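Quick review question:
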């Protein structure tokens, strides 16, 4: 924010101790004022009362709605805090407007007090930017930012009002910063009016922002009315304002004593101006009468006009810009906004704040201006950060890093223009590395963030934001420290990745062995058709024996052949009623027992099985032998209740049928199979087109299974190569090129292309157009066999909270709906005008219009839609009335049950189909 600071150099001074509530005076108590002036000021006070009473009431109502809306989307503990603030507001609401107006009357009553403009300005600046307790500083910063915006937006009415207040006070024009009813006077009145509300800092700042939206954004109308009131009182009725410097005009119009300069200094000041005036007069008097002389006269006038402009303005030096940006950097490093998230500034905002700071501390009143080269540098850095902010998540870690580093990086770019061309510039390297870490390790990583890396990234970013004062070495050291930590982390992750790949290969080998064994057993059972008990033993027991033998010795080993021979002998013995020729019953029984032991059966189970297989060898004195049915049940319990899948050919059945792939999907599958293990893929996970990265670490040519790992080396969702091919064709996944440009180089390339477009120069490969919702305007044509767009089941989610949109998308993404999202009612109506939508889910609490009002409008314009209202805060009368009028099909509450929500949406689409 363009907060005020003391004179050059820009140094933050300590804050004064918190003071008691100030004593206010009324107009009647100010005996020094003449009756006429007191009457005029009373009229201004009454005009303010008429204007502010309804607007303050609207502000407080909007603030209460905002608190309820925030509570609606907060945790239980935070909800209690928000509702406590609502209770505080209701209890103290009646006192706010009277206290606000008393503060305004106090400012009017003190008109004309002995306040030297420069002294007041310096004292106020020191107080506003002092490093005080967090609460006082944050309030001052936000209120100062609000006032500065108004001062820049409505300068001309404030300039005229300052002159007219000067007439009432008998002084030169009163500066806008100390003028009664000026923006800073109004913010001070707001602070005084709400001082008795026991609010948390974050909640108080929300109140200030509501006041800014409701009152300050339309304050120009009040200033026009105040000027009109004074004109009606014949106070400077013919004053004409010019867009010149406030202080310069004031200084030129004021008499010498009013400026507080000693006579000697004033005479010296006039002496300094005299030579210029004499030279100008000489040039004017020397105009010849010839035609050439008349042409030269135009040049003389231009020169004089240029000198006048130069006298009113000055070009800010590099040190001036660095000082102003250092003040902004210090404020940003210590301030905590209401949402606890730093905000990026546009290039225009930065330039306005720089000019406001420089103008604030210019003793001669001349208006500052930024040189063309420096202005271009600020614009280019602004474009860079704007592009980077669009390529990262708006609520992610990378955006936080960008907002924190914006001012330090801008200072480095202004100091060294090599920032724009040198890829190894310390500030450029740090910006690239830190944003990449924020995006890759946090925003695009859905696994739990590494706490050590998170702490280091935040600490180094905060260190740059606090301590950078032009030393490029600070950038280099921070980038090196983070790089070393990333290298250590990557070594640990590589070990974890190798383990995951080895485990996947082991699972694949086990699956292949199990399927091969099952195929061998199934083929033999189909030929011999043994009894139920032997069939159960072979399918559930000996399959495990063959699987373990294959894993240990392989398909071509003699051990595997011996185990198959045991199967053949058992089947032959069962068919002949005796043991196969050449094999004694004792030998076959021993082979069966050793095999079942390899499968992991207990000794008593093995004994019972062999006794059933070889009844001639049973001990006749054994009592209570186990029945065949009981033994089969025990065998199923020991070896698994499900019958293994058998394949007559013994080949691996694919987990995903490749024959069902279309021609583009088959081509994408061939491309995926040519990728080297370790290739990164990028997946789109929600309608906002947020990206996550997955590493293709391994895939099987037999089953089509693949192993996708996240940035931490942990397995991601299970999928197959054919499914990956479908995702690539449908633009839900893309291959990350290994030689892809860094995020900074990519940003500069895009900026260059954009600037060439604006300048009319051709570019070789223009980027595809993008719609306002972030989707590419020229989407791929639908695949053959796909339903036309009007037949698709389209669901529109309307909620101003992005997290709610994402949560709904995750719950419903597998329902095969086409899900579209809108953040406001206006955006939703635009989508409805372009797209055919069957079902709408709308939040109740949205800025500008409620969910019931929005759905009522939708019913009138799109009556065939099915409308669902979703909210954690319900106004029973409003919702009931909307349901009775048919605007709402169902009303669901937050938090919702995922299964119930899916069911309700399915019912809504069925109702739409019946309709």
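Suggested answer, residue by residue:
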């Amino acid at each position: 924010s363009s907060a005020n600071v003391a004179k050059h150099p820009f140094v933050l001074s300590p804050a004064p101790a918190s003071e008691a509530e100030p004593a206010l005076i009324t107009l009647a108590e100010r005996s020094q004022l003449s009756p006429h002036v007191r009457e005029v000021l009373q009229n201004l006070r009454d005009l303010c009362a008429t204007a502010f009473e309804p607007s303050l009431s609207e502000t407080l109502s909007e603030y209460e709605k905002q608190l309820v809306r925030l509570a609606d989307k907060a945790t239980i503990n935070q909800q209690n805090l928000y509702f406590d603030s609502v209770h505080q507001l209701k209890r103290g609401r009646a006192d706010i407007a009277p206290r606000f107006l008393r503060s305004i009357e106090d400012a009017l009553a003190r008109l004309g007090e002995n306040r030297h403009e420069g002294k007041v300005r310096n004292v106020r600046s020191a107080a506003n930017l002092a490093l005080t307790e967090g609460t006082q500083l944050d309030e001052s910063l936000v209120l100062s930012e609000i006032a500065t915006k108004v001062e820049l937006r409505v300068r001309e009415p404030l300039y005229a009002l300052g002159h007219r207040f000067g007439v009432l006070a008998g002084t030169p024009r009163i500066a806008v910063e100390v003028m009664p009813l000026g923006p800073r006077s109004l913010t001070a009145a707001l602070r005084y009016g709400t001082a008795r509300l026991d609010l948390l800092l974050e909640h108080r700042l929300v109140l200030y922002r509501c006041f800014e939206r409701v009152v300050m954004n339309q304050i120009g109308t009040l200033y026009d009315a105040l000027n009109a009131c004074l004109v009606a009182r014949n106070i400077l009725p013919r004053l004409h304002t010019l867009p010149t410097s406030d202080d310069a005009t004031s200084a030129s119009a004021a008499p010498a004593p009013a400026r507080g300069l000693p006579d000697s200094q004033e005479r010296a000041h006039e002496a300094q101006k005299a030579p210029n005036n004499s030279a100008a007069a000489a040039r004017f008097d020397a105009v010849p009468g010839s035609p050439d002389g008349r042409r030269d006269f135009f040049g003389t006038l231009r020169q004089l006009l240029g000198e006048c402009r130069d006298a009113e303005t000055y070009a800010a030096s590099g040190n001036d810009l660095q000082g102003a940006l250092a003040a902004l950097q210090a404020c940003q490093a210590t301030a905590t906004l209401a949402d606890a998230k730093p905000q990026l500034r546009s290039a225009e905002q930065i330039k306005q704040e720089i000019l406001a700071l420089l103008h604030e501390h210019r003793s001669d009143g001349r208006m500052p201006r930024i040189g063309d080269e420096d202005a271009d540098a600020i614009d280019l850095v602004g474009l860079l950060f704007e592009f980077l902010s669009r390529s990262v998540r708006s609520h992610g870690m990378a955006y936080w890093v960008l907002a924190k580093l914006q001012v330090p990086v801008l200072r480095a770019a202004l100091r060294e223009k090599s920032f724009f061309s040198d890829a190894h510039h310390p500030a450029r390297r740090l910006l690239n590395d830190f944003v990449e870490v924020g995006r890759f390790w946090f925003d695009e990583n859905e696994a739990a963030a590494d706490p050590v890396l998170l702490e280091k990234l935040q600490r180094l970013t905060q260190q740059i934001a606090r301590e950078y004062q032009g030393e490029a070495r600070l950038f280099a050291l921070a980038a090196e420290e983070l790089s070393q930590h990333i290298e250590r982390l990557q070594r640990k992750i590589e070990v974890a990745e190798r383990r995951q790949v080895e485990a996947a290969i082991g699972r694949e080998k086990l699956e292949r062995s199990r399927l091969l064994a099952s195929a061998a057993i199934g083929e033999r059972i189909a030929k011999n058709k043994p009894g139920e008990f032997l069939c159960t033993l072979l399918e559930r027991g000996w399959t495990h024996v063959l699987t373990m033998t294959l894993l240990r010795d392989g398909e071509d080993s003699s051990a595997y052949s011996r185990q198959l021979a045991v199967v053949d002998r058992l089947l032959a013995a069962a068919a002949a009623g005796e043991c196969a020729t050449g094999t004694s019953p004792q030998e076959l029984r021993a082979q069966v027992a050793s095999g079942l032991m390899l499968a992991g059966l207990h000794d008593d189970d093995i004994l019972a099985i062999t006794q059933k297989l070889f009844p001639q060898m049973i001990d006749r004195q054994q009592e209570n032998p186990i029945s065949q049915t009981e033994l089969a049940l025990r065998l199923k319990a020991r070896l698994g209740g499900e019958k293994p899948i058998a394949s007559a050919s013994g080949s691996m059945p694919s987990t995903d049928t490749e024959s069902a792939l279309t021609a583009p999907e088959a081509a994408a599958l061939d491309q995926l199979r040519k990728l080297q293990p370790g290739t990164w893929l990028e997946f789109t996970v929600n309608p906002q087109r947020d990206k996550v990265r997955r590493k293709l670490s391994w895939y099987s040519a037999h089953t089509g299974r693949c192993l996708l790992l996240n940035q931490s080396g942990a397995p991601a969702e299970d999928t197959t190569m054919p499914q990956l091919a479908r995702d690539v064709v449908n633009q839900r996944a893309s291959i990350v090129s290994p030689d892809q440009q860094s995020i900074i180089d990519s940003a500069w390339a895009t900026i260059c292309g954009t600037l060439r477009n604006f300048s009319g120069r051709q570019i070789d490969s223009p980027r595809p157009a993008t719609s306002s919702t972030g989707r590419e305007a020229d989407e791929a044509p639908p695949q053959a066999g796909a339903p036309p767009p009007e037949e698709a089941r389209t669901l529109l989610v309307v909620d101003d909270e992005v997290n709610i949109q994402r949560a709904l998308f995750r719950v419903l993404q597998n329902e095969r709906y086409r899900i579209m999202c809108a953040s406001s009612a206006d955006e939703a109506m635009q989508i409805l005008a372009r797209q055919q939508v069957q079902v709408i889910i709308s939040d109740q609490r949205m800025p500008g219009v409620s969910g019931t009002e929005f759905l009522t409008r939708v019913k009138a314009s799109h009556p065939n839609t099915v409308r669902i209202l979703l909210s954690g805060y319900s106004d029973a009368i409003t919702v009931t009335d909307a349901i009775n009028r048919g605007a709402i099909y169902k009303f669901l509450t937050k938090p919702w049950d995922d299964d119930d929500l899916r069911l309700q949406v399915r019912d809504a689409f069925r109702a739409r189909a019946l309709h």
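Why it works: The radius of gyration is 40 Å. DSSP finds 31 helices and twelve strands in the chain.
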